[in-house]
TrEMBL record:
Its EC number is 2.4.2.17. The lineage of its organism: Bacteria, Bacillati, Actinomycetota, Actinomycetes, Kitasatosporales. It comes from the Bacteria. Belongs to the ATP phosphoribosyltransferase family. Long subfamily. Pfam families: HisG (PF01634), HisG_C (PF08029). One of its GO terms (cellular component) is cytoplasm. Pathway: Amino-acid biosynthesis; L-histidine biosynthesis; L-histidine from 5-phospho-alpha-D-ribose 1-diphosphate: step 1/9. This is ATP phosphoribosyltransferase. It comes from Streptomyces guryensis.
Amino acid sequence: MLRIAVPNKGSLSGPAAEMLHEAGYQQRRESKELRIVDPGNEVEFFYLRPRDIAIYVSSGKLDIGITGRDLLIDSGASAEEILPLGFARSTFRYATKPGTAGGVEDLNGMTVATSYEGIVAKHLADNGVDASVVHLDGAVETAIELGVAEVIADVVETGTSLRNAGLEVIGEPIMKSEAVVIRRTGENGEEPKVQQFLRRLQGVLVARTYVMMDYDCRAEHLEEAVAITPGLEGPTVSPLHNEGWVAVRAMVPAKDAQRIMDDLYAIGARAILTTAIHACRL
Ligand SMILES: Nc1ncnc2c1ncn2[C@@H]1O[C@H](COP(=O)(O)OP(=O)(O)OP(=O)(O)O)[C@@H](O)[C@H]1O
Ligand SMILES: O=P(O)(O)OC[C@H]1O[C@H](OP(=O)(O)OP(=O)(O)O)[C@H](O)[C@@H]1O
Ligand SMILES: [Mg+2]
């Protein structure tokens, strides 16, 4: 049985459960459940604090975990990222009251409040900056107003929390994060159960990113059409009863679908349809 750590709370928890559900796995019915077994898929899910997941996975007691890249790196645990999942995207940045500092190089002698001490201490050291770090559990944006620190380092998505606190980012992002699948560093990546789990999640990512496009076009325009919709391994082309016409089917990126339909129409393609992909194995 594959043992998988899933975030039980916070920004990662809802989207992770949704992705696992789309991949065909049973998920817990209520938020107090700490573990469930999905016998049909031979998987056991453990609902754990996102911050603890890399530690459990590095211990070898759990095979796989879903957590944030920033949490993985901050933990210092001996676990590695094996698949990025595209949700809970954020940057990790320094912020101050306007006029306090222009970048990390100005932080000598200051105090930085953060929930991610591991990332911040390393970043300061890598930049040769001597600043102290104070650990706070959350809502770190308030630390400056209340005099606990001159600088914060925190997760930024829309920037709303910073704006509301009258703070602005300084310097370049320390890192970019998103939800990731992790496993113990150096673990054999060929294990069939693990590979099957990753293929299922990859299938969800593809189904979310691509749509299926079907259209009819004149045979003499086929090469132009194929250049517009190359598909993954090449489009499927079938003859139409109407001589001189062919039907074409290819996967296209969902975000480009409308532009691609316009381009196909312009070269004379007609009956252009897009349909959602519900599941996929590449
Ligand atoms: N507003 C956000 N947008 C996108 N990702 C976020 C956001 N806030 C936190 N994250 C990501 O979520 C993970 C942190 O999860 P965690 O549950 O510890 O904190 P949280 O989502 O802020 O929840 P909590 O309410 O418990 O503070 C990190 O990977 C972080 O990058
Ligand atoms: O840039 P934004 O869109 O505002 O998002 C970033 C904020 O979201 C998270 O806070 P959360 O609400 O989880 O509270 P926390 O600080 O207690 O973790 C994060 O810690 C930032 O404060
Ligand atoms: Mg938070």
